[in-house]
């Protein structure tokens, strides 16, 4: 192969690397790669997020302590947030506050819920849409999370599975009754509901590289509270 051909191939390769770099930095591919490396464990635990919580109620610590009050044996997840029993969540949270925890028994996962759904909140855990009601209240409480971090295994959760939400107002158990895949601009996700409902949302498809065009929606009804 002549020097001219080698030089031509090197020029093409360099141009290709530059184009890939621009695409990679301009999409969510970088976020996906970061999320995969940070959350490659089989189950996602709230303990993974504890060091990253920088909220206005940062005085709440997450040390290794006595487990939170147990659920029924049939519902207890394999891995839950190790919180003191007397932990106090704010009853009127502000944007950025750690306002509760979301337990997903199907996944053995326990995740912090942060009030707000901007990127700052979603980097710390599951975001609570501030325009929706608090969990446990009548109407629609909406939670969102990134598919490549907190909700990377949410596709395993479906109809009949449960979500357990703990806040200052109590512990609320929801059962999934509907699974929807909608366009990213579908606003029916946040519409009012006639009963106490939990709507959990993340980007879809889960293995999509870049900005995902759809949303994976789980609609769950309140079945018990304490």
Automatic annotation (TrEMBL):
<keyword id="KW-0378">Hydrolase</keyword>
<dbReference type="InterPro" id="IPR023365">
    <property type="entry name" value="Sortase_dom-sf"/>
</dbReference>
<dbReference type="InterPro" id="IPR005754">
    <property type="entry name" value="Sortase"/>
</dbReference>
<protein>
    <submittedName>
        <fullName>Class D sortase</fullName>
    </submittedName>
</protein>
<dbReference type="Pfam" id="PF04203">
    <property type="entry name" value="Sortase"/>
</dbReference>
<dbReference type="InterPro" id="IPR041999">
    <property type="entry name" value="Sortase_D_1"/>
</dbReference>
<feature type="region of interest" description="Disordered">
    <location>
        <begin position="56"/>
        <end position="89"/>
    </location>
</feature>
<dbReference type="GO" id="GO:0016787">
    <property type="term" value="F:hydrolase activity"/>
</dbReference>
<feature type="active site" description="Proton donor/acceptor">
    <location>
        <position position="146"/>
    </location>
</feature>
<feature type="compositionally biased region" description="Acidic residues">
    <location>
        <begin position="66"/>
        <end position="79"/>
    </location>
</feature>
<dbReference type="InterPro" id="IPR053525">
    <property type="entry name" value="Sortase_D"/>
</dbReference>
<feature type="active site" description="Acyl-thioester intermediate">
    <location>
        <position position="203"/>
    </location>
</feature>
């Amino acid at each position: 192969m002549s020097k001219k051909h080698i030089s031509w191939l090197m020029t093409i390769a360099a141009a290709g690397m530059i184009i890939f770099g621009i695409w990679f930095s301009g999409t969510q591919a970088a976020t996906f790669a970061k999320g995969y490396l940070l959350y490659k464990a089989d189950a996602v635990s709230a303990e993974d997020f504890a060091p990253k919580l920088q909220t206005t109620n940062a005085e709440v610590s997450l040390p290794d302590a006595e487990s939170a009050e147990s659920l029924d044996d049939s519902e207890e997840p394999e891995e839950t947030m190790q919180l003191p029993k007397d932990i106090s969540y704010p009853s009127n949270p502000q944007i950025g506050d750690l306002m509760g925890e979301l337990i997903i028994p199907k996944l053995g996962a326990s995740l912090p819920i942060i009030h707000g759904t901007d990127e700052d909140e979603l980097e710390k855990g599951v975001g609570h849409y501030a325009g929706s009601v608090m969990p446990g209240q009548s109407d629609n409480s909406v939670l969102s999370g990134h598919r490549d971090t907190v909700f990377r295994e949410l596709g395993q959760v479906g109809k009949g599975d449960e979500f357990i939400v703990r806040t200052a107002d109590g512990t609320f158990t929801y059962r999934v009754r509907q699974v929807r895949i909608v366009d990213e601009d579908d606003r029916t996700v946040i519409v009012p509901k006639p009963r106490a409902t939990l709507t959990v949302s993340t980007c879809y498809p889960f293995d999509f590289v870049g900005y995902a065009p759809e949303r994976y929606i789980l609609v769950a009804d309140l079945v018990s509270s304490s």
